[in-house]
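In this section we walk through a basic example: taking a raw amino acid sequence and producing a predicted 3D structure, encoded as discrete structure tokens. The instruction is simple. Fold the sequence below.
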Amino acid sequence: MGTGTELDTGLDTGLDTGAAEAATAELGAEVAADSVPRADRRRRTGRWRRALLAALVTGAVVIPLSAAAQPEIPAPAPAALAPLTPATLDEAYAANRANAGEASRMAAANGDDRRAAADRAMADPDRNLLTFDGRGEGQATEVLGDLAHADRVAVLVPGSDTTLDTYDRFRATALNLRRQLTRDAPDSRTAVVSWLGYQTPRTVSTTVLTGDRADQAAPHLREFIRQVHAVTGRGAHITLVCHSYGTVVCGRAAAGLAVSDIALIGSPGTGVDSAAGLRTPARVWAGRGADDWVGGVPHVSADLFGTTVGFGTDPVSPAFGARVFAAGDVGHSDYFTPGTASLANLARIVLGETSEVTHA
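The resulting token sequence is shown next.
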């Protein structure tokens, strides 16, 4: 469950596809069980929990192997910054670029050429980084556009497998949205922010099936939205554009958040049963492409050994109650591809052109 341009991995391409497909098949049978007697439903519940547990065990075996191949990457601590305001933006951008440059030199000295190149790209004078932390898998927040004068801001929240090493793919989604906004409304004052402000889970792991990473991320996303308003003013319209596991993050952060719209794409669920359960005054949108593998993953949740696994109601289902928009035939990694219905509708949502949004 990853970013709009990441490698299209997940239950359909995991290291043990047999276990994942078995889990999906068992869970899928449960979804349509409304007309089945209660005793049969209980038996099916037991079966899909066992199938899900098998998939979790597979993930638990995979994680130590993949983690062992990821040595810690040295980098300086994040730059010390003054509180964000329109007057301090340039100072923050400069400090974070300098930090990225130092991180690149440290990574190169450590023999990690891939990270050194990624950090070096971040240090480019044309990049506007609100935050940067090159340690470990890394985090960064980048602005495309003039944030200080923007009255409409899109904040992109990525899903799994998004790190500094894969950040260019995430940035490409932000660039595509930024270009679409400029094309549709050349005189508008918009900005797009790519927010990699949390440690995303790996697609093939147990962490992607629980809300733990989202729980850790949500306070940081709330604080970031507060900082955006400190720069733009409270009158700015902010849209959260949340992809895959990022929709779980947005679901955790949504309550009372000062945003105008929340768009959920490729969502495995948000952890609540309905849009009303998000406890947000924002308009809640949901879209899923016809070729997105998430559509084949049962949207359920279960308690296993005291841990909630899965994220509940499908956001594009009538039961959830979101405004469902057309996404066309895109796959899980294609929502921001130029020329797609999904990108066109996301731009309309950000621009407040809600009557122009096409519906599924």
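Looking at the output, two observations stand out. Confidence is low (pLDDT under 50) at residues 3-36, 53-69. The first helix runs from residue 17 to 31. In the next section we compare this with other chains.
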